[in-house]
Amino acid sequence: MARKKADRHAKSSAWRSEEELRYMDNLRGSLDWDTPEAVYGRVKRLYELHDDYREKSCINLVASENVMSPMARAYLGSDLGFRVCDGPIGRKIFGAGVQYLEELEAICVESSRKLFRAEYVEHRLLSGTMGCAAIQFALTKPGETVMSQSSNSGGFVCNGPIGPAKYIGLSVADIPWDSEAMNVDMEAFEEAAKEAKPKLIILGAMITLFPYPVREIAGVAEDLGARVAYDGAHIGGLVAAGRFQDPWARARTSSW
Question: Is the pLDDT of residue 226 over 90?
Fold first, then answer.
């Protein structure tokens, strides 16, 4: 009996898009995979092309992807960048050899608390999507509703219906947006919030030109028994430096 030919995509093909499968097939035919030098040469060339394009040929307008400081770059390329340091501060799982990194963690937490004028800080999340997932898992239950800014008006995809909410089992309603004022349409928002009855309202976007009406939104949330989260991924540095809206200072409500 002839053996069935192995599917090189295995089970993953069930959730990969046609575009991704096609891209990977094209890539497989573009390199000599039996020659490590060829693969390494292409990786090195892509690195050079990327740096040349991002640093010399375009202006980076996304705040979170702007220019990393020389000190941060140097630290990222040192042993610190790949050292395992599991466990909470003061009680590391791998305690031997991480005493200096542990103190750096503690300094990071305390400095962040002071910079953002926050009571609590968690600094170990690996990506924006994981951060959004953590907030949504912590503050909602399956079957509940979240309100967030639509990606059509500049909102983060990971706060939308195809982000973590999809896998938590949440419904997502759009925060009404005034495209002329480039801000929340408060009158429409109040009506939409009353209808959607969200348990969590998430502010924040890839494009944040003006301060949000945080206090007003928090007031609506309080009336509905909802929580408010502020995703400041792209403007965090401006908030810390006091150059943009400080959401904590503006909320002044128990629902925050």
Answer: yes
